[in-house]
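Thread title: Can someone regenerate the structure for this chain?

I was given the following input by a collaborator and told the matching C-alpha cells would be attached. They weren't. Posting the sequence so someone can regenerate them.
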Amino acid sequence: MSARFEIPFPPPRPSGPEPRMEPPVVAFQPRWEYREIVREIAEGLPSTAELDALGAEHWELAGIAPAGARVHFYFKRERGP
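Best answer:
Regenerated them for you:
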C-alpha cells in the first residue's frame, strides 16, 4: 500500500506578521584628511591621468576655488583607522 500526498508550490506563508530583525546601529564620526592642488590657469587643468591616480588613492574632489591667476582644487578622503 502506498500513500500519496502533495506539497503545494509555493508553500503557503504563515499567517500573521513576519518576524523582523532590526540591524544594529553603530554610530561613528568619520575622520577626513584633505589635499590641496594649486594650478596656474596658464598650466591648464589636471589631466584625466592625474585625476584617475588621485581617485585610485580614494581622493574625492570636494571643491574648486579660483584665486586670481590660480585655481585651488581641494580633495578629501576618509582617514584610515
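The radius of gyration is 28 Å.
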